[in-house]
Each structure stands twice: as structure tokens, then as C-alpha cells.
Amino acid sequence: MSTGTTIALAGNPNSGKTTLFNALTGARQHVGNYPGVTVERKEGSFIGEGQTFRLIDLPGMYSLTAYSLEELVARDFLVQEKPAAIVNIIDASNLERNLYLTVQFMELGLPVCIALNMVDAAQNRGIEIDAPKLSELMGIPVIPTIARSGQGKAELMQATGEMIDTVELSPPLIISYGEDIDQALAEMECEIADALPEASYPSRWLALKFLENDDQILEYCQRENADLCARLKSIRERVSQHISTTLATCPEAVIADHRYGYIKAIIKQGIITHHHDRNRLFLSDHIDRVLTNRFAGPLIMIAVIMALYQFTFTYSETPVAWLESLFGWLGGMVDANMPDGLLKSLIISGVIDGAGGVLGFAPIIMFMFFGIALLEDSGYLARVAFMLDRVFRSFGLHGASVMPFIVSGGIAGGCAVPGVMATRTLKSPRERLATLLTAPFMNCGAKLPVFALLVGAFFAKYQAQVMLIITMIAWAGALLAAKLLRSTVIKGESTPFVMELPPYRMPTFRGLLIHTWERTWQYVKKAGTIILGISILLWAMMTFPGLPEAQQQSFDLQRAGVTALAPADLEEQLNVIDAKQAETALRYSIAGKIGTSMENVTKFAGFNWRTNIALVGGFAAKEVVVSTLGTAYSLGEVDPEDTNSLGATLAKSPEWNPVVAFSLIVFTIFYAPCFVTVVCIAREAGSWKWGVFSIVFNTSIAFSLAVLSYQIGSAGIFGI
Amino acid sequence: MLKLSMRKMKVNQRGIIDAVRAGGELGKRIRDMGLVPGTDIKIQGRAPLYDPVAIRVMGFTLTLRNNEADYIDVTVED
Predict the structure, then answer these.
(1) What is the pTM of this model?
(2) What's the complex ipTM?
């Protein structure tokens, strides 16, 4: 009996792989990332009938030619970790294309067991598959399954176990690729076997990949044995030349043709019985006639996106409020039970606010992932990408970029943290990175109090119009910045849009829950510590070095004086002194020093030192801009929801006018994302380089635009 | 019998792939998804802005952009 053997679960996207994985492993699974890349690695164990298997759910792939990062990761796993067997999940309604991958597994020489999945759905489509015959013709076990109900999973595991026990080393499948290629393969195989007897790849497979022009294998050969590589290259050169003159095509194409030829030859032997015309319209296609209709389609899409948005941000409000009051209560407890001092301030403003910052996003992320998982698993997200691709492509993005944009605040009031995490639905790496970096330009809910304050104070007559302009600036800025990024730092051809539109399916509730939970948990776990650290750092910047002794004493004296007089409005007068002290302390702090020293530069955008400190604070979260401005203008704590007094103060201040306000609005739209978002960007992009890049890039854009609007605005208004 | 580029095909028109002239990344992708010479295809629909295009191949639906369809030659019966 095999115990603890590693089995890889592999198959095309949308073949029900993850559903089967969930059915086999239940709660015994965990998610991580493949080392060095952002692709998820899911692992779980199957225990049953005296056997235990370690199951690895490989990312979905169409081929072993390793076109996408997912495919590369999956291939590396198969080749390097050599699982005892591959369970190849195949969509029974889509046998022909799915077998293309199976054939490649067999060429690699690993034992393969086919799970012929969704046989019920295939039956409904009038497709009957002769599994025993397929098994006989291909020489591997074929087990019909229905992953959603778990039907066939025990048989599947049993067959896999038996296969592992009996097959010591299954010989790789050898397909004929026509005389030219076969001859070249034989020649190359000899060369490789001689030069690299220890290679971890089968030599015929290496030769095949070499002919297929596989970059990774080319590099591998170059590294292992440059001499061999040169000889292999010359053989390939010769074959390519020959094929291009005789057949006007390339070796890769000939190889693919023959693989499909091999599959067709098997299928033609009566494997599939079609009860209807195979291309007739099914329910899914009828739905598509409406949902992707030229007129109704976009309208329905807007409705669906609005619904997702409502769902994410309206329904998550309650749990967010619970968490807020929990942390408020915790803060209150600490406030009441600890002596005043630095430690108390650290715990309240650094630790509790920091942890609150992390956990406060958790419900939003949960709701968003639930909603997106629903759209993705049902197949609708692929339709959204299909409909919007033309528009987004002109900016170097992908049709699927719309979701992250909207969630981030494309409809004002979103949040960039779930938005950045939503970019996972994009499979094309360059478009994904561009989306990741520009989504924070959208107007998230935390920026709104800043806008509300400034618009209320300076543009009270045109509130609605100005808010609309702000939203448009954000969209235009994000799209143009994406275009800029795609033509500079993330240069490169757009990724091919050759994509499957999966049939509509009802997602399994269990799958949705697992999906939602693991992503939320990953966020809390991975982001938590870093965010706490940055939160403490920002607290320190705004607290230290603290007021000098003399100043401190002067405030104490003032307080003592007022208390001694005991006027009727004692409380009020004390508050004024407290606020004044807070302002002075803030000015003395590191953040204050930075703010003051930056004045020479930021004056071109119309910002004074108070605004500068507020913007430093805004790196924690954008609504902190408002509360910090409150402290800096010695108003004490200002509630971001109620900004009347602060607005009035600003409106009266000689340093402020509508042009300054507008310049600050522009800056707020574009400058560095809050640090929770930066942490998420770094995690999603797979490197801290991009986190730092987003801070620098966004702030530079923001500053240039703010200076531009301030200078033009001042010139226009004051006629200079 | 008429040979033309896939971009020029009309909705609901059927044809058989004659050649795939794309190399590199795009060529690999197209072939991996089953678009090889001899395969039956049908234009299923177009996105609201006429691009990308959805095609029916081997019983499933595939989308690609018009500038990618340019690389695929199809034989159609008038």
C-alpha cells in the first residue's frame, strides 16, 4: 500500500479541478505560494481505504509548452518534483482539447490517471463517452467522475493507487511527428543521452521541447552543456529550414498538428457518441446571446458590476463597524486603565490602530472575494473581459482590468486593498502589473472625507459637479498612467487574448467559501505583521522627539493658571490649550520637521507645512489627512465625518483658496497609496521593488499634476 | 470553396482552418487551444465593439482579438 505518496492534480482551467480537489481533501488542505512567484500552491491530503496521498492542486494549464506563468510553475513541479502520478482532470464535454494536455503528460513519461469529470453535464449535452475503450486505447486508467457530488472519487483514488503500485516506470508515450521531425528527434536524443546522462528530463522530451523552441529548455541546455546546445541548435536549424521550404510552416506547428492527429485517431474509433449536432446551441449559448448582446450586454454588465460593488461595500459595512467598535472599545479600555505616557500612546495609536487597520479591511476583502469568486466561477467574468477588452486594450490593459478598477473606487467609495487583490483574476502578467499599479488612483472611500472637506469649504456651490470632475480625473489619470507604464517600464506586446469562454455554471457554495476564506486569511496573515510595523513607524514619526521641557512646562503653567481661575468654561479652555499643545508637538515631531523642510518644494503646489504633515499622515490612511489637518490647525481631534469647523478654519485662512484646495484634491487622488495597499501591491507583484515603485511613481505624478494645476490656477485667478 | 482570413468571417459562418501563420507566443497559444489546420470552426459572435470575436471550436467557445484572427486562414463554403 502506498502511504503519503505525492500525486499531482492537473488539467485545463474550468475542468473542475479545484472542485475535485476540494471533494478529495475536504478540510485537509492549505494554500501557499510557489517559491518566488505569486502563483498559488494548494496542497491537501486524501485519506481513504488504507491509503494516504499528498495531493498537489496544480494551476490550470492548457499545455506543457509553458506559455503562462501558471503553466511554467506546473511544468516545473512535474519535471522537478516527479510526483508518483498525475491525476488528469478532463472535462468530458470537451474531450478532444483536454486530451492534448494528457498526451503531453504521457510524453513526459509520468503515470497518468484520467478523471473524466462532469460526465453528467456531458450527458445533458448529448455526449456519451466510452470510458473503458478510451482507457484501453490510451493504455491508462479512465474513471468517470462528478466532482460536484463527489461521485467516482473513491474509484479514482483506488485506480491511482493501483497504478502507482503496479507501474514501476511507465515508458513515455512516443508519437510519430512525421519523418523530418522523427529523424531529427532520434538524432537529438542520442546527442542528449550522451552529453547529459544525468538530466532530470527524459532525453526525447528534451529534444522535443528543443524543437518546440522552448525558451526555458534552451536556457537549461545552454547552462548544462553549451557544446551540446550548439549542436542541437544546428539540427533544429536544419529541420526548420526544411519544414519551412517544404511545408511553409515551423516545427512547433507540425508537432501540435501531429498531437491533435493522434488524439483524433483515438477519438474516431467510436469513443464519443453525439446524440445531437456537436455545435448546436446549448443553454449556455442562449444565455450568451443575451448577456453579450451588443445592446443589452453592456447594460447588464453595468448592472452586475454595480451589484457587486453594492454587495461588497454595503454589506461589509456592518462587520466593519463591529470591528471598529471592537477596536474602539479596546482603545477605550487601554485609555482608561493605563497611565498617560508614551507606552499608552504607542499601544493606542500604533498597535491597536495598526491591527485595526489590517482587520478592518478583512470583511471588505471577504465580501469582495466572495462576489468575484461568484462571477468568476459562474463564467461571467470571462464575458466581462470579452466585452470590455477593446476599450482597455487601447490603454495597454486587459478586459478583465475593469473589476480591480471598480472595486478600488472607480465608483467613488471603493477600496484599493481588495482592488489590488482582485487583479488575481488577470492571467496576463504585463496587463496585471499595469492594473495593479494604477488601480490605487481610483477614489477610494478614505479619500472621500478629504474631498468632502475641501469641496464643502471651497466649492460649496458646485459640489456635485466638482465630485464628478474628481472621478473623471481619477479615471483619466489611471488609464493614461497605465498607457505610460505599458510603453515604458512594463513594455511589451499585449498578451494574446486567446481565451476560453467557459460555459455558465452554478458555482458550488463550498468552493466559494473555501476560496473566500483562504484569500482573506492569507491577507491577514501575510500583511498583518508588516502593516503593524509601518503603523508603529508612522506613530513614532508623528510623536518623537516630543516637546522640549521648556515648552511642556509653559503649557502646564497655562493649564494650572486656567484651573486656578476656575472660569465657567474651564473644560473648554483646557481643551484649547490641549489642542494648541498637540499642534506644537506635531510641529516638533519628525513628521513636522519633514513637513516644514518640504515647504520650499511643496510651495509650488500651494501646500504649507501643515498640509505636508497631513499628507505624511495620509500614508497611513487617506482619511488621516483630515484628522491630522485638524491637529495641525489646533482644533484637536477632528472627526473625518464631521468637518464643518475644520472647513470653516481653512476657508478663513489666508493661506488657502480654491486653487490650493483643488491642487490638494489632485494630489490626494494620485499620491502614494496608503501603506496597506503598498504592502498588497508588493505581495501581488511578487517583489518589494513594485511597492516602492508605486510610492515614488504615484507621488511624482501627483506632485507634477498638483503643481501644474496650482500654477495654472493661480495665474488664471490672480491674473499674474 | 473560398479561402479567407478569420477576421473577415461573418457571425454564424462556418469554416475549416487552413493555416495558422502565427509563430512565437501567440502561435503556441493558438495551437494549444486546438486551432490547428483541419479543425472545424464557427463564428459564434462578436463583442459589442466588434472585437474580440468568439468562435466555436470542438464544442467549446474561444475568444480572440481581430488582430490575432488575422493570422488564421480559413476555408469556407461560400
Answers:
(1) 0.86
(2) 0.95
